[in-house]
Amino acid sequence: MDRASRSASDYRIIRNVTVVGSVVDALLALGKLTGGIAAQSQALIADGIHSVSDLATDFLVILAARHSSHEADSEHPYGHGRIQAIATALLAVSLAAIALGIAWDALSRLRGLGELMAPGWLAVAVAAISVVAKEAVYQYTIRVSRKLESNLLQANAWHSRTDALSSLIVIAGVLGVMLGFPWADAIGAVGVAVIILYAAFKIGREAFDELIDTGLDPNTLTLMRETILSVPGVIDVHELRTRRMGSQLLADMHIHVNPLISVSEGHHIGDRVMLVLGEKFKALTDIVVHIDPEDDFEMSNPEELPLRSDIEQAVRKTLAATDVGAWLLQTGDFSLVLHYIGGAVTAEVIISLPSAESRKVMESESTALAKTIVEETSLSGVRILYQG
After folding, report:
1. Which CATH architecture has domain 218-292?
2. 239 in Cβ contact with 297 (< 8 Å)
């Protein structure tokens, strides 16, 4: 599946999953806020505010998924996947702000700046329903997020999980008040704030990692390297770089192949690497393979090495200066296969001659001619071959 098709498919799935979660969040937010006020539970009200933030997050997820699914264009050649990371970062900031607000209010009540509430069984019942409902939403969403490898959807799933955990704290706090500890509900509200703040930090860090192009984890990189090396013709792989863009992965690498194979064979090996990586890592939608005749990470060819046109001119000049070479240029022609390896240039001089007799003449002079070419040009080695 190409990048555009995958993005469109991911958006539809994310939208459908998030709509289910938003319906649950809306019902729970209404129930918690109403129940918290009726039952006089500060922790349940805080949990209700948490559910409202989940509902807002649901709309943000759908909006971000929709825009990030747009196809690449001239201004955005890699697509719009980063919109998901930006939305996730905004989501984390909003969560942190809500958590700090809840904690401040609860701590103010604990310091005697506000009236402590006295909740009852109604708060426990509403919180218990929330635990079951939000855990179900979490399990559903996290399963889909792992299938799509979507950080945005995973972040939303953890919103649901933190809501379930915070509802458990609400239950503990309310039961504490009912057992004679009037400050337990406010402590529960602080606990809810801590959970929300932790979720904000975790989600925000993942979004930040994506925005600064943090590579994949070491285990994934090792598996990716093993997959590349399993392709026949690949000697080694280096400069393997990866990054994430929304639910998609991007990778570029240098693969080391036999320096004496043809360009087309090296290209075919690179195509096979792209194929096996795409089959192994479904989220990998953009792969760039650079073909190296040697490990240029440790050894690179000096920039002053001559180009083909310069070498060809030097070889032709050298041939013209010898009797046998001048005869060759008059009788036949030659072509070059150049190898830039180990900081030097070697060549295969392929000589085309019109008859077997002329070939015999040239073969007797091959060794001396090759030596002369090496001495008079920048080539470090020459092998003379014949055709025709």
Report:
1. 2-Layer Sandwich (3.30)
2. yes
With a CB cutoff of 8 Å and minimum separation 6, the contacts of 91 are 57, 60, 61, 155, 156, 159, 203, 207
Angle between helix axes 82-110 and 42-68 (nearest 10 degrees) is: 170
What's the whole-number average pLDDT of the chain?
A: 81
CA distance 385 to 365: 12
Residue 112 banded pLDDT, cuts 50, 70, 90: low
Please report where in the chains the tokens 């090296």 appear, as a residue: 266
Mean pLDDT in residue range 267-291 = 90
Topology annotation, domain 308-387? Alpha-Beta Plaits (3.30.70)
Question: What is d(CA 35, CA 120) in angstroms, rounded to the nearest whole number?
Answer: 10
The beta-strand segments (E) located in the chain are: 236-245, 248-256, 284-292, 333-341, 344-352, 381-387
Give the end-to-end CA distance of the chain in Å, rounded to a whole number.
Answer: 47
- Tally of CB atoms within 10 A around 362: 19
Would you kindly state where each structural domain of the chain is located, as residue ranges?
Answer: 3-211, 218-292, 308-387
CATH 1.25.60.10 fits 3-211, yes or no: no
285-341 pLDDT tens trace:
889 999 998 877 666 666 788 899 999 999 999 988 988 888 888 877 888 999 988
The pTM of the full predicted model, rounded to 2 decimals, is 0.65
